[in-house]
Amino acid sequence: MRARPTLEKVAARAGVSRATASRVVNGSTRVAPEIREAVNRAVDELGYVPNQAARSLVTQRADSIALVFPEPATRVFSEDPTFSGIIRGVSMEIEEADKQLVLMLTGLAGGYQRVERYATNGHVDGVIIASMHGTDPLPGILARRGVPVVCSGRPSVPSSLPYVDMDNVGGAERAVRHLVEQGRRRIATIAGPQDMIAGIDRLNGYRAVLHDSDRRSIVAVGDFTRESGTSAMRQLLADDPELDAVFVANDLMALGALTALRQAGRQVPGDVAVVGFDDIPAASYTEPPLTTVRQPTVEMGRRLARMVLDLEEKAQVMLPTELIVRGSTTTP
Amino acid sequence: MRARPTLEKVAARAGVSRATASRVVNGSTRVAPEIREAVNRAVDELGYVPNQAARSLVTQRADSIALVFPEPATRVFSEDPTFSGIIRGVSMEIEEADKQLVLMLTGLAGGYQRVERYATNGHVDGVIIASMHGTDPLPGILARRGVPVVCSGRPSVPSSLPYVDMDNVGGAERAVRHLVEQGRRRIATIAGPQDMIAGIDRLNGYRAVLHDSDRRSIVAVGDFTRESGTSAMRQLLADDPELDAVFVANDLMALGALTALRQAGRQVPGDVAVVGFDDIPAASYTEPPLTTVRQPTVEMGRRLARMVLDLEEKAQVMLPTELIVRGSTTTP
DNA sequence: GGGGAGTGAGAGAGCGCTCTCTGGAAGAAT
DNA sequence: ATTCTTCCAGAGAGCGCTCTCTCACTCCCC
Question: Does position B291 have pLDDT exceeding 90, yes or no?
Answer without folding.
Answer: yes
